Amino acid sequence: MVSSLDFFFNPQSVAVVGASRNPAKVGYALLRNLKLFYRGRLYPINPHADEILGLKCYPNLKSVPDDIDVAVIAVPAPKVLDVAEDAGQKGVKGLIVISGGFKEVGPEGAKLESRLVEIIKKYGMRLIGPNCVGVYVPKTGMNTLFLPPEKQGFPKHGFIAFISQSGAFGSAVLDWAAMRGIGISKFVSYGNKADVSDDELLYYFRDDPDTKVILMYIECVEDGRKFFRALRGVTPYKPVVILKSGRTEAGARAAASHTGALAGSDVVYNAAFKQAGVVRAYGMEDLFDIAIALGLQPPARGDRVAVLTVGGGSGVMAADALSDLGLKVPRLSSNTIEKLRRVLLPIASPYNPIDVTGSATDEHLVEAVEILLRSNEVDVIMWLPYYITPGITGELNKKFLDRVRKVMKELDYVVPIVGVATGGKYTAKYAKEAEDMGIPMYLSPERAAKAIKALVSYGQWLKRVGTYEEYVEKYRKEVGI
Question: 326-329: long-range contacts at Cβ-Cβ below 8 A with a sequence spacing of 24 or more?
């Protein structure tokens, strides 16, 4: 499965059919982005131009003297079929059809799409699209988005693969991820998915060494059984987080006009997701909040959460948010409470939430987290450091992470840690530092609680399918604990 799709993401050569000299045209923006990002051989196809953007043009695919892995097509829908024939005769491996005007516009467009599929099957080619923005891969520079980099942000390389049925939403999310500093391993927008489908992409990313977490935005699935089998084949090894739209009657109507397919019953999708170990998201922030937690921390072995906070009010809000999601904020044993009393200030609260108070120092948080980790009474820790308080120094993150790693190496279990950093520029600086060091950080206890819920749910799923220990052992090796 990997070898059958890898040329789309790591091509040696790319042709742009419909390359244009007009900066207002999609064909110009496509070629420009590829020239800026892509590090392979690039061939513009335009019968009316000798060169575009300093690149030699060719009248058609068959006139290109070299082999072509991928042809990116941006010509009117009726002309796509002739281009596909040329590509097949040239021996092109795959087509990315950006053009719209296929089944999403009605019966005539559906006929065109059906004929396009016949052509690619005749020649043994693969197809992403039509009606899509294609792929973006930071590592190889493969970039078929037709949005100018002055307006569109392109994320750095990271561990999140993102599959989007919607090109516009996918592009907006990439823009947001770039601004947020979130990395992407690979992005693909498949539009009408006339050929390459959800299940194939899931298997591809399961086996992709650059991907730790798979995100999906979907509106509909044509072959539900096949999709469900693929999810069951992937989630025991990598988490899959899905944002499924078209949940309401109005949303389902919109999805039908958008991609030309019915969205289906949300009740059925929800049940299938639960049975396949999918973590469901209900918005863009959810999607990435959950992905960051699953990519940076191990899955939780249970649902007991300790709240370690510098602010009492935030601790209360955290306890409420966790309880609302069905997670436990358990009372600690008298033995653990006594150990906490010995290392905390007399005014601190050693219960759960553990409130070290605004008078705390770095050492209070560091000593407390070791006691919690060793207690074997909690499965996850929510950490609310409040970097702005007087006793907290710029060295807190390093001290805290060093202690966590030291203790984790000595334990025969793992305890994920999720942080909350509510504040302004000063707080944001240290929150980013903590996240770069491996602890996912959120702006509110509520968002952190949802991330913890995902770690708990995924841990329960891995235990159910029997791959929890294998997954955790892999995590230990990756982070060196």
Answer: 326/453, 327/303, 327/449, 327/452, 327/453, 327/456, 328/303, 328/304, 329/304, 329/305, 329/353
Read off the amino acid at residue 453: K
Nearest Cα neighbor of 60 from 79, 36, 38 is 79
Percent of the chain with pLDDT over 90: 89
DSSP designation for 103: G
Q: CA dist 231 to 216, 279, 420, 459, Å?
A: 11, 11, 31, 16
Nearest to 197 by CA among 216, 212, 210, 173: 216
Give me the torsion for CA of 267, 269, 275, 277, rounded to 10°.
-130
Half-sphere exposure of 212 (CA within 13 A, CB side): 21
- For 462-477, letters b (16+ CB in 10 Å) and e give beeeebbeebbeebee
CA-nearest of 464, 217, 452 to 328 is 452
Nearest residue to 212 (alpha-carbon basis) of 241, 191, 188, 232: 241
Asked if residues 45 and 82 have their Cβ atoms less than 8 Å apart, the reply is no
Give the pLDDT band of residue 174 (cuts 50, 70, 90): very high
- Angstrom distances, CA of residue 226 to CA of 6, 174, 232, 329, 360: 21, 28, 10, 39, 54
Burial of 134 (0-12, 13-18, 19+ CB in 10 A): buried
User: Residue 296 and residue 326: Cα distance in Å, rounded?
Assistant: 23
What would the two tokens of residue 5 be?
A: 């799709």
Q: Hey, how many other C-beta atoms are within 10 angstroms of the C-beta on 361?
A: 16
Exposure pattern of 65-98 as b/e (b: 16+ CB <10 Å)? eeebbbbbbbbebeebeebbebbbebebbbbbbb
Instruction: Please tell me the total number of residues recorded for the chain in this structure.
Output: 481
- CA torsion sign, 409 to 410 to 416 to 417? negative
pLDDT attached to residue 284: 86
Q: What is the pTM of this model?
A: 0.92
Residue 261 has pLDDT above 50, yes or no: no
pLDDT of residue 249: 58
Q: How far apart are CA 408 and CA 402, in angstroms?
A: 10
For the stretch 332-368, pLDDT in tens is 999 999 999 999 999 999 999 999 999 999 999 999 9
Alpha-carbon gap, residue 414 to 376, rounded angstroms: 10
DSSP state of 442: E
C-alpha 71/C-alpha 76 separation (Å) is 15
pLDDT for 377 beyond 50 = yes
Strands 55-56 and 51-52: antiparallel
